[in-house]
Structures are given as structure tokens and as C-alpha cells.
Amino acid sequence: MIYVITHKKFSDSFINRNQYLILHVGMNNDDKSYYLRDDTGDNISGKNQHFCELTGLYWIWKNGCEKSDDITGLVHYRRFLTTEKEDFLYVYFHKKPSLLEYKDMLKHVNNNEILLPKKIFTLDTVFNTYSRMHYAEDLRLVGEAIDELFPAYSRSFIKVMKSHHASYGNIIICKKKILDEYCNWLFPILFYVDQRIDYSKYNSLYQSRVIGFLAERTLDVWADQCKYRIVRYPVFNMEQPRMGIISLTIFRMKTLISLLMRGSIRQ
Fold this sequence. Notes:
Layout: E1 2-6, E2 20-24, E3 36-37, H1 48-51, H2 54-63, E4 71-76, E5 79-81, H3 84-93, H4 102-110, E6 113-117, E7 120-121, H5 126-133, H6 136-149, H7 154-162, E8 165-166, E9 172-175, H8 176-196, H9 210-224, E10 229-233, E11 235-237, H10 245-262
Parallel strand pairs: 1-2, 1-4, 2-3, 6-10
Antiparallel strand pairs: 4-9, 5-11, 7-8
Helix pairs in contact: 6-8, 7-9, 8-9
């Protein structure tokens, strides 16, 4: 089953509950009776303020009932995978897209393929972009964790940090055994960072979601050396359509001018 991560009640009539299970994350009670909860079984729900949807991923890893070759993974209550055609109609004509067909996801998964979000272009490098939005020292901690725990991925970390494309949302759909491989790699890194990070420096709830932000960049590091084929689909946000080409071009030009004026684009 594919899990839909949420931290609150939402209108879920469009979800086929024979294909998706709704998993409430965090320890509040803003849920419905048929939602699964990530504060049961082997869980890290208490870390949700910093780990975001990753407390749900941890729960799926430890408590999911899927067999090794079954489809599993996570999307969000307002972020789902869709096709390029549907995404185009959404961006340019504001036509609400359909979810990527379950049968198509299953076909990919049965071929040992992993579904991930389509990467988004960034004017500056992934590292510099993150550093402007958040705290550079946190991302350096991830590099330190990888160097110590999984040194074979150190080059991939550097490669991803220097690239100009990133995926967001921590969305992944694959076989359960592949998800287990990813989680066995990811969570030791995140717990390493969690033990060393200075949470007192964050002055907003948004910035305190740091582990979730870091994991988005870390997923691409794992994918860089993944032995399975990666298939990427657009992500649509049901509450916030992406900008059309004209608006996006203007936004990128303004960002580039701002970076050049501040001299913040680094090699």
C-alpha cells in the first residue's frame, strides 16, 4: 500500500482506500477514526516537529504490513505524483490534475523501478540554495555523517551539493524491500545529525523542520548510487499550483539579479 502522510484532517474522498492508506503523523488528535497513526508500534512520532513526514516513513519501515515485493512508499495529503501531460494542464490552464494511475505505479514497481519526484532546477547550487534558505552548518553535518557512516557515498554527496537540480517532498514509491534498504541507509544519517544539531538556534516552526529539509537533499545522494532504475514524475500541490513559464522566467531573472548584486553565486 501507498501511504498518504497528513498531520490533520483533510477532504480525502478522492483517495481510493484500496490503494492508499492515510497515515497521521505527530502526536496531536486532529485525525479521523480510519487514519493510521505514527505514534503506535515502533515509532519516532515525538520527533515530528523536526523530522516532519519522516516520522511517517520510519513508521512504514518498522510497522508496515507489506511483504518484500509489495508496493509501498509515501505521498502527502496535498502533494501527489502525476503525469507530464496532467502537470502541463495544471500549470498553464489550471486544470486540476489526476493522480498518477495506481496501475502505472505498480508496473514500475514490479520492474524494480523507484518512483521519485521530478527534479527542480535551481539557479545556484543545491548547497548554496539551501544555505540561503536554512543553515549551511546543518547540511555540512549531513556530509560529516555520510563520511563517517557511509563513506562510499561521499563523492555522491559532493556531486549533489554542486548540482543545480533537487527534488522535494521526500516522496518515494517502490518495493518494500527497496524502501527498507533506503531507510537502513537514511535514518542512521539523520539520527547522527539529530544528536549533534543545535535546535535552539531556530526562531520559527518552519526552520525547526530541519531534518525533513535535509532528507530531501539526502534522497538524491542515495539515488545517485542506487542500483535500481529511477523514474521521476512531476509533483502537483493541490493547494498551490506551480508558476507558468512567464511567471517562472521573471521570478528566476529577479533571483539571478539579486544573487549577482549580492555576489552570492559561488563556484
